[in-house]
Amino acid sequence: MKGKKFLLAKRPVGEPKVTDFEAVEEELPPVGKGEVLLESVYLSVDPYMRYKSESIPLGTIMPCQAVARVTESKNPAYKVGDNVIAAYGWRSHIVTDPEKLISTFDGSISKAQVLPDFGGVPTSLALGVLGMPGVTALFGLIKLTAPKAGETLVVSGAAGAVGSIVGQIGKILGLKVIGFAGADDKVEWLKELGFDYAYNYKKISVKDALKESAPKGVDVYFDNVGGQISYDVCLRMNTFGRVSLCGAISSYNDMGDTSKPPLAPAIQIPAIGNQLSIHGFLVTRWLNEWQDGIKQLLGYVKQGKLKYRETITEGFDNMPQAFIDILRGENTGKAIVKANL
């Protein structure tokens, strides 16, 4: 049986191109003792893949998580028909020991997790609100910024997979929530989610928007974009404000281009003046609490407190284009690829 995978063929310069990736067919080995054959059902595309494309060796597989189905098994812990979540990269199929998977994200040994019954919600949510983006939003907000009811929260990249969840959790916790996105339809969606204020930063400056929506300043900032937006938010933050640094998508496409280094005002000035606590993080720091986070998020979903939207690209062969689209901001909510194998 043959499978297909995408390798990083060229180091992207600026926005990635479809030709930066090479589709390769591979002959799959027979399933051995303790192994399974996994077939991709849904694959995740995320902004972090852009900065990983600057560091992984050329000719290696692009990293991602996938929801996969067990189609053949010689491991008693994994039954044919089980759905699992695993980090094996841009692959259509893989034969592997599911308890000793080598993560394409950082090379660590990980275990394919059999997905529980989500109670009627789609299994694709294991890549979104009930997966890495959801846990990132939940723990990145509550554990790093300790928000209190009545405080003001600003979220950049608010219509993305993480930002849209952060804002809704903020409302659950009793915060005033302000979101910034890059399109009018995204702004309307944020209002549907319950954001108190939502702005298209391409039509109104962050400074002017916050004069209206945060006249008493900002207490908590969840940053998904970096750059000028983040500097302007930090200028409006109250003394001892807290910042959770999750992403910097505004400058990802400038990585590796020495002719156009990313430029931004010095965030140290408002950070010092407002005595801000700024926390950069990777969600993997909470692996030991992961399942607790998923249970909490699933509870919010079933209670109707947490809504979601998915942008689905059909077909495994369209992985590169789906990745490029997310960097252009063409997704609302979680971007995924439905493999259709």
Automatic annotation (TrEMBL):
Any GO BP: prostaglandin metabolic process
Keyword Acetylation annotated: yes
Primary localization class, coarse: cytoplasm
Cellular-component GO terms for this entry: cytoplasm
Cellular localisation: Cytoplasm
Transmembrane domains' residue ranges: none
Record-linked CDD domains: leukotriene_B4_DH_like (cd08294)
E.C. number: 1.3.1.48, 1.3.1.74
Domain Enoyl reductase (ER) as annotated: residue spans: 14-337
Catalysis performed (reactions): 20-hydroxy-leukotriene B4 + NADP(+) = 12-oxo-20-hydroxy-leukotriene B4 + NADPH + H(+); (5S,12S)-dihydroxy-(6E,10E,12E,14Z)-eicosatetraenoate + NADP(+) = 12-oxo-(5S)-hydroxy-(6E,8E,10E,14Z)-eicosatetraenoate + NADPH + H(+); pentan-2-one + NADP(+) = (E)-pent-3-en-2-one + NADPH + H(+); octanal + NADP(+) = (2E)-octenal + NADPH + H(+)
Assembly and interaction partners: Monomer or homodimer.
Family, per entry: Belongs to the NADP-dependent oxidoreductase L4BD family.
PANTHER family: PROSTAGLANDIN REDUCTASE, PROSTAGLANDIN REDUCTASE 1
Protein name per Swiss-Prot or TrEMBL: Prostaglandin reductase 1
